[in-house]
Design brief:
Length: about 500
Amino acid sequence: MEIKVEKGRSEKFPCELLLLFSFESPEPLEGPIKSVDLEWKGYLSTLISQGDFKGELFQCRLFHTQGALPARRVLLTGLGKKEEFDLEKWRGAVSKAGQFIRDSGVKQFVFQIKRFKGLSEEEITESFVTGLLLGTYQFNEFKTLERDKIRKIEEAALLGETEQETSRIGQGLERGRIISNAVCLARDLANAPSNQATPNALAEKAQEIARNEGLGIEVLDLSEAEAMGMGAFVAVAKGSQEPAKFIILEYNKGKGLDTIVLAGKGITFDSGGISIKPAERMEQMKADMSGAAAVLGAMEAASKLQLPLHLVGIIPATENLPSGKAYKPGDVLKTLSGQTVEVISTDAEGRLILSDALTYSLRYKPKAIIDLATLTGACVVALGDYVMGLFGNDEALLKRIEDAAAKSGEKAWRFPLWDEYFEYIKSDVADFRNVGTRAAGAIIGGIFLSKFVEKTPWVHLDIAGPAFIEKERPYIPKGGTGVGVRLLVQLLRDWNS
């Protein structure tokens, strides 16, 4: 979809469809919808007073203008109660409007950006573009039948009345487009089948981002990782014939900026290994690399936004499959940190590959480490599929994450990491086990990872619930969601503020 900025007023602008928003009645009309209503001789206010449009959240109603306006059609979309309005509802309302326009077959529409509810043109535009692009996202790459029936919006125009307005709208548009494209990249990777989104494919995507954005990149193969001492990552990778890759992306190296490491679990398919999973819904395990996808998206967005930080993206990428070479329950692994782990379940492989990634990240002496992983089913049991589990060892960093979650609309809820929980993973034959009992499963995953970050400020985001969903939400279709990208980008944007 091409989105452009033009100078004009909604009631005077010729177009296929004019998009308007209204709060729930009896709120008075304001902004562009009021101007259009005056031009239309009170037609819209009459409809609203008669109850034909109530302005309820996400309500959409299409009207043909019959030549009364330069626009051929007007779409009214509800924002709900004015006192409950926020940017999350704005993104949702825009997405519902975009889906309505797309499904109606209209190819082009116009919307006028005006300040309201104390929000600037940049904020309104960025969230508008985010809601529109993420709400109309479709994953159709592998469909071959009836492709001519796939509907898309081809063009949207955002109107400003003055040069100053159009300039600010343009800035918001660019930021919204960059962030949305990064989320869509992560969604595409999570939705792609595992025979396409292999560890090597992740490495190739990282190399493409590095080329396009001028990032540094290093990709280690399995023999190099083994020679380095990554015993946990290597053990998981040996069960698959698909070559594993340990990917390191670096942005703004050597510029004296704060260093932040983003680490993402990159299991491109998870059968559970020898501790094999049930067959039901195993096909969704193609999305077990959603943490890696989020890191790639965030690194791309941060570089395009030219954020003043030194960022390192680390992605241990492999499949987890059973074979004659696969690691087994009862094995003892020596990690890159030198600590040893007794394997109790080969289906707790994410924490193993991340243990070596976290240890590797310490060589950059970062101000903070943030890892994202579809780590535990226990986190889904605790929080459902709306919320990320939040764990960490540094109060200030945890608070930064919570603030970024609130701004981005990507919810995160904090769990404790008290020392007592370590009792669950004490081992008789190694330093610790990779799983404990059934109790506190999500916390045990976090406790395990905490043993590999030393005293560095660190946060772990368990995204197992919201990474891949079966019921769509306003601007999040079914399937891979790209969760974590917007939260990370918001965190990085606010880092120096």
